[in-house]
Amino acid sequence: xxxxxxxxxxxxxxxxxxxxxxxxxxxxxxxxxxxxxxxxxxxxxxxxxxxxxxxxxxxxxxxxxxxxxxxxxxxxxxxxxxxxxxxxxxxxxxxxxxxxxxxxxxxxxxxxxxxxxxxxxxxxxxxxxxxxxxxxxxxxxxxxxxxxxxxxxxxxxxxxxxxxxxxxxxxxxxxxxxxxxxxxxxxxxxxxxxxxxxxxxxxxxxxxxxxxxxxxxxxxxxxxxxxxxxxxxxxxxxxxxxxxxxxxxxxxxxxxxxxxxxxxxxxxxxxxxxxxxxxxxxxxxxxxxxxxxxxxxxxxxxxxxxxxxxxxxxxxxxxxxx
Amino acid sequence: xxxxxxxxxxxxxxxxxxxxxxxxxxxxxxxxxxxxxxxxxxxxxxxxxxxxxxxxxxxxxxxxxxxxxxxxxxxxxxxxxxxxxxxxxxxxxxxxxxxxxxxxxxxxxxxxxxxxxxxxxxxxxxxxxxxxxxxxxxxxxxxxxxxxxxxxxxxxxxxxxxxxxxxxxxxxxxxxxxxxxxxxxxxxxxxxxxxxxxxxxxxxxxxxxxxxxxxxxxxxxxxxxxxxxxxxxxxxxxxxxxxxxxxxxxxxxxxxxxxxxxxxxxxxxxxxxxxxxxxxxxxxxxxx
Lengths: 322, 288
Description:
The complex is a heterodimer of chains A (322) and B (288).
Chain A: H1 2-24, H2 27-53, H3 60-77, H4 82-104, H5 109-129, E1 139-140, E2 145-147, E3 150-152, H6 157-180, H7 182-192, H8 194-199, H9 204-230, E4 232-233, H10 240-253, H11 257-280, H12 287-304, H13 308-318
Antiparallel strand pairs in A: 1-4, 2-3
Chain B: H1 2-32, H2 39-55, H3 61-90, H4 92-114, E1 130-132, E2 135-137, H5 139-161, H6 163-173, H7 175-180, H8 185-207, H9 218-232, H10 237-257, H11 263-277
Antiparallel strand pairs in B: 1-2
Helix pairs in contact in B: 1-5, 1-8, 1-9, 1-10, 2-3, 2-4, 2-8, 2-9, 3-4, 3-8, 5-6, 6-8, 9-10, 9-11, 10-11
């Protein structure tokens, strides 16, 4: 199947990049690559949600934060074993997503978007102000995670990059296989025509909730890895602007699985490039170019409506109808 | 008791400004089905521009107000064009994402123009505290309530008694029939956006003497304005003001009696609760 082959070729490309990147990129670029790995996980979930159920979520950063803070609080403060606290984070995020989704999925598209925005904002306010989460100061002293004897932390960026991108590839493959399964066929049906799918007996609401839970779980997983990587977290990367950035990454990538990864990396390096560029303009606030660029980029991407169907058509015509 | 009274006054003043923003949401939503994320940006643009004009150029208050409203009106026309194009090519959800992107871009513009410090300016009606019984009232708060009531009255008259207003309502409820009746649907759509923008800019101009405005304030205003609109039911302009009032008072009360850091979170929780429990909203007495 054409689509299948293209996916595996693209995945091979990602694997090659993952193997090569930490070796050829300089140390600061490797850090960007590293953080793009976390973003890629989150955006994989978001792309699944947006691409296959058509639901916009402006609250993924909240799930990212739930995973991170679960690990920080349980392992950092209460000294739980890492595996347990990570599991709690993922399950908690999934449970909360089912609660929220169950409440607002019945409503139409833009209400869901605003419901997720509301949810994301409340969670980030609680994270930034509650005693439990350390308030504005955050939580530090999160224990180190080790894989095969090597620490997964900012002190060893190359090894950590391999770990996180390994997980990204595993998740990509996992999602792809899921989409090829009977459940995945149902998702395709929902994406193409929700009403037709419902009339054929597909439990649309149930699938939407499940995909939402999956997207929440993978975002929490990213958070659960993020916390020990930095060994310190505060509420700042889990707010509404982060959620909007994830949205941008998914939109640029065309809401497909490979697109999610491409979008995450593209926006990550774009952000770094803009920061470097604005350093050349003295007196300009560092955030200005980023805000402007991200905003216009999102607008342009949306206007060009670069979704998978169109992308496939463009690629087919470029390859001469292979 | 005085805390209650003072908080009530503050809540009413901020609530009616939420109502102005909510009114804009309702107008655009009824006309196009788009939830316009740049409403909050219009408030921030209006407020920061007003602060700049009042403090640097030292223009009189009325001129400041008019210039702000015109400027924001032009910006909202631009947003309207982009939104309509986005909606035609990609549907309502894409238009929503376009407004999200535009609001971020506007943040960048405000940051570039006015820097990252919150700005405010002196109230044109002075700072002398008035006393109603034991309750303290600032003249600006009275000004806000008076102007908003006037605006609401104007809007009611416009929507109910002028050809333009009735045309907007017709286009909103049935665009095809409206077009067949030779109502220029596109123009009324643009009009809805511009009116919404002008009202938001007005809100910004009114509230900035009382609460400093920063380049990133747009998120809070979008959230508050939209929550107010949801509470009211996204149907009726007057209901939007009422929804704003409810929200403003609840927020200020929570802020005074529980904790001031959770105020906007309260807006979100109330909005979520209404979405879940009574999606029609509290004030949707028009037929829908």
